[in-house]
Amino acid sequence: MAAAKLFFVAVAFLCLSYLSGGADAAAASTSFIRNSCKITSFPEVCVASLSGYAQDIKNSQEQLLKTALSVSLDRAESTKEFVTNLLKFKGLKPREYEAIKDCVEETSDSVDRLSKSVSELKDMDRSHGKDFQWHMSNVETWVSAAITDENTCTDGFAGRALNGRIKTSIRSRIANLAQVTSNALAFINHYAAKH
Description:
Invertase/methylesterase_inhib, Pectinesterase inhibitor domain-containing protein, mainly alpha, about 200 residues, pectinesterase inhibitor activity, about 0% strand
């Protein structure tokens, strides 16, 4: 009976040690993300968008930038879908319809450029670091262009004539997308400069 209790206590201790170690690793990864996000223009958005991926990121700068870029691509795809669905609204003013249509095109371009960037990083992995600067230059160019596309979308809603819920919701979505993409670019630039 005493041996069974001793065995149970030992197993419980091992389980708690394992769980504690996992919690320590997750806390360290979250701390790494929080510290890394300080180099971005939107650190709070950065921490909020990446903390859920702490176990994947661990303490890797490379994994951090890949995850940030993937998060940006996911956000661009959902934003494109959101804006595309707005075209189905009944009663849109002609200028609203045109601005939304242009925004769909800009967000589609942004998705395309971010997709190319993700693929370029995979190509870089397959080339085992050869032509590193060339690959990173392509990624930097495409991500910068994606930010321009995102900002161009909101430019289409300038002026009071388009004020209203649609303008507010698009600007809010695009602003968040541009912030996440800007943060990804900050990690890309930082990583490229260090290598």
